[in-house]
Amino acid sequence: MNIVVDQEIEYIKSQQQQLNFVVLSEDKNKIIITYENQQLAFTITNDGFQTETDFFETFESMLMNVFPSFQQHFMNEIMKKLK
């Protein structure tokens, strides 16, 4: 996988409202977000998303694994687009 870090940062910023998270901090490729009052710090690399303990290939898979309630929200958004 080859992620363009700057493009991914812009994508993440653009998805805040739709996916119900807030970008608290951005420093080059290090991002901190909050979702349902929980913070998550991660680093974007050309290969994916690195949290303190885990690696994920996509932003959405990281959110679904770190925040279990995000799975349902994400599936609801997908279903809206399929209608």
TrEMBL record:
Residues 15-83 form the GSKIP domain. InterPro entries: GSKIP_dom (IPR007967), GSKIP_dom_sf (IPR023231). This is Carbamoyl-P binding domain-containing protein. It comes from Hexamita inflata. The lineage of its organism: Eukaryota, Metamonada, Diplomonadida, Hexamitidae, Hexamitinae.
